[in-house]
Amino acid sequence: MTPTDLVDANLLRTMIVVATPLLVAALGELVLERAGILNLAIEGMVTLGAAAAFVVLFAMAGLTGGVALSLLSAATAATVVGLVLAYLCVGLRANQITVGLGLLIFSLGAASLLYRAVVGVTTSPPRVPTLTPEAVPGLAEIPYLGTVLFRHNLFVYAALLLVVPVWWLLFRTPLGLRIRATGENPKSADSLGLPVQRIRYGAVLAGSALIGLAGAFFPLVLTGGWSESTVGGRGWLALMLVIFGRWRPWQVVAGALLFAYVDAVGFVFAATSRLIPVQFLQMLPYVLAIAVLVQVYQRAQAPAALAKPYDREARY
Amino acid sequence: MMKRLLLSLGVVLGLLLTACAPDPAARTDRETTEVTEATDPEATEPEATDPAETGTATEVPAATEETPVTDTETQDATPTDDAGDLADLAMVLPGTIQDADYNAVAHEALQTIAEERGIETAFSESVAVVDAERVAREYIDSGFGIVAFHGGQYLTIGLELAEEFPDTQFIVESSGELDSQPENVWNIGRLFYPGYYVLGVLAAEATTTGTVAFLGGIDIPDYKAGANAMFEGARSVDPEVELLFTFTGDQNDAVAGRQAAEALINQGADVLVLGVNNAIYGVAEAATSAADPVLVTSLYTDKRSLAEELFLTSMIFDFTGTYLEVLDEIAAGTTTGYIEMRPGSGVTLSEVYNVSDEVRSEVESAFAAVAEGTVEIEPQADEVTVP
After folding, report:
1. Alpha carbon distance, N-terminus to C-terminus of chain B
2. pLDDT tens digits, residue range B264-319?
3. What is the pairing mode between strands B55-56 and B337-343?
4. Same domain, B181 and B248
């Protein structure tokens, strides 16, 4: 392994592809958390989104509109779970940690059940065609940068650009201000006439849809298949990235790219060098995450009402 | 307020109950599949074309590997063969039977056992090691006379329970012969490395770049020995062939599989010999996305459907035949023994694709040599060493 391997174009290209589902899921979680709802079901919702996307595309093999319906299914499946989360946590003011963990187990089981119901038990693994990378005319031919940035499929471009509308919505629109207000001080927001419950419902549903779309990324772009381990803990990483990014969209993007880079470098090291034990390389991204989190969390500005049920009748 | 809280609690409990399937012995409404209704295999296995490629539509409640959830299905069957004194068989599985891999072939074996030996079979999916003892005890309490542990991670548990339940027959799977084992234990030794030697021969024959690689998941001794044997096989064909290897740390993480495969491909490897299970989805994606053709092999089942133009072959483990052999021994009164799965005995290669007839013939010769013992391979399981 040479220093140039660390900035290899293919390595950086892989970094972007692997960072994308983390980014989309983290942005979805960010929207929820900014409204004061902690979603511990995120890993299950990503897995369910992945399963829904896979089975729909599998069932619609060769039919036009399969990809669109697949994406819609992924978003819908996660949104349904989000609706239950919202009803329990916003409507009934249940403990968000308990509900989140319950829905996590439910979603993982539902994903597996959905797969078995559609695909069945077979010894011949099914696969769906992944989205074809689209070279951006004129830019894809640029040496180095063309490979890194301009040879991805549309989903990757859309996911990377998603940060702009999410940032704009949260920090440049009245609605974003209201969402953040319900996450910071729902009582004050309520006293100003804001419909706290409706805003939280909306944020949960919108965030859940994004989390489901992040799941669709796994079969549609990364693997072409689905198994219980497809997501492999990356939903939890997205949850961590929200803290890592201090609840700000651009920092979340930076965190996702950094994590994906360290992850990708670990695989290059493992394939080319025997100096570092493979187990250490495998834990490197998590060590980095912990190290950075310790620093970041000292200055973290979590929404003040995060994970706190809001009851307008309650005395604080 | 109280009403809402109770409703909330009820919904959460309902969700949890939906996700968690009941335990085997605690379950009174065990699902039963009458195998006798499907005496024509085509009726339930419409896609079946060879022993390694069957498709069934058995509906079983789902579970995931992440949760200590167990699912149970039993299969009653009218004997089509003399079952002798054979007791009913329960199997503990580490994953779900829909994995098209290690657990799917075990499910296939159970279906055949129920059909051909006329005994009731049951299984629990996604059983974590910490839950395996409880699940096995529940099966024993429920009257199952044979308990099989499908996976080397259950070996210690199987041996310990065998001491405690001398009247129950246990079947365990391991990496080879044990120093000692109770009188009511059959040990199935799964040897990977002899098959990997043959895959090494194939890899060296198939490469055009002169670089081949072993891609494993968890770096356990089985796969370390496999990688070393693969290297030995490759060098037996071409002493100059470049050898690479890597382990992802997970047998089923397809994204990690893809990243590891891309790293190896970027280093020039154009043949990837795999020691992973469902991680192959990501490897296949990396191979199909590569600028130049990259060939892959697989384990347990024929996975040609993932990348037809890039698939070489699969090392198939015939658990159906092996378990039937063990059960016949048990029926004959032999309650303990060791049976080895290796080339020539329960391990075969599926058809070799995407190579010339000449290469195919050489691979068949290498396989025969390993099976007959004319080529002997010493297992090197401590660490992977490029010769």
Report:
1. 72
2. 999 999 999 999 999 999 999 999 999 999 999 999 999 999 999 999 999 999 99
3. unpaired
4. no
Residues B306-355 pLDDT 10s: 999 999 999 999 999 999 999 999 999 999 999 999 999 999 999 999 99
Cβ of residue A4 closer than 8 Å to a chain B Cβ: no
The structural domains of chain A, with segments of one domain joined by +, span 3-126+147-298
Task: Note whether residue B11 is domain-resident.
Answer: no
Q: Please indicate, yes or no, whether residues B177 and B141 belong to a single structural domain of this protein.
A: yes
**Chain A residues inside the 8 Å CB shell of B7:** 92
Residue B310, C-beta contacts closer than 8 angstroms, at least 6 positions apart: B284, B287, B288, B293, B294, B295, B296, B354
In a domain, B200, yes or no: yes
A113 touches chain B (CB under 8 A): yes
Residue whose token pair is 């657990």: B103
| Domain A3-126+147-298, CATH class in plain words | mainly alpha
Domain of B312, in residue numbers: 193-316+348-372
Q: Say what the pLDDT of residue B13 is.
A: 45
Q: Is some CB atom of chain A closer than 8 A to the CB atom of B218?
A: no
Q: Which of B132, B160, B190 is the last residue of a domain?
A: B190
From chain B residues 51-110, the ones with a CB under 8 A of any chain A CB are 52-67, 69, 95-101, 104-105, 107-108
Farthest CA pair distance, chain B: 79
Tell if the CB–CB gap between B253 and A232 is shorter than 8 Å. yes
Give pLDDT tens digits for B118-131.
999 999 999 999 99
For residue B262, the chain A residues in CB contact (below 8 A) are: 10, 14, 267
pLDDT tens string B12-69: 445 444 444 434 433 333 333 333 333 333 333 333 333 333 333 333 333 333 333 4
Phi, psi dihedral angles at B94 (to 5 degrees): -80, -20
Residues B197, B183, single domain; the answer is: no
Q: Of A310, A259, A249, whose CA–CA distance to A14 is shortest?
A: A259
CATH at B93: 3.40.50.2300
* B140 and B236 share one domain: no
Contacts of A119 in chain B (CB under 8 A): 98
For the four alpha carbons of A299, A304, A308 and A314, in that order, the dihedral sign comes to: positive
Identify the pLDDT of residue B49. 34
**Domain check: are B69 and B110 in the same one?**
yes
Residues A242 and A159: beta-carbon distance below 8 Å: no
Report residue B96 CA to chain centroid gap: 11
Residue where a domain terminates, one of B190, B214, B229 = B190
Helix (H, G, I), strand (E, B) or coil at B309: helix
**Same domain, residue pair B88 and B128:** yes
Model-level ipTM above the cut of 0.85: yes
Q: Nearest Cα to B259, choosing from B250, A49, A236?
A: B250
* Four-residue CA torsion sign, A189, A192, A194, A197: positive
**What total of structural domains would you count in chain B?**
2
Three-class secondary structure of residue A266 per DSSP: helix
Burial B199-238 (b: 16+ CB within 10 A, else e): bbbbbbbbbebebbbbbbbebbbbbbbbbbbbbbbbbbbe
**Residue B231 within a domain:** yes
Q: B259 with A264: CB under 8 angstroms? A: yes
Q: Are residues B66 and B93 in the same domain?
A: yes
The DSSP secondary-structure symbol of B152 reads G
Instruction: Indicate whether B241 and B311 sit together in one domain.
Output: yes
For B264, the closest chain A residue by CA position comes to A271
The full length of chain A comes to 316
User: Which of A92, A103, A272 comes nearest B4 by C-beta?
Assistant: A92
A112 in contact with chain B, both atoms CB, cutoff 8 A? yes
Q: pTM of the prediction?
A: 0.86
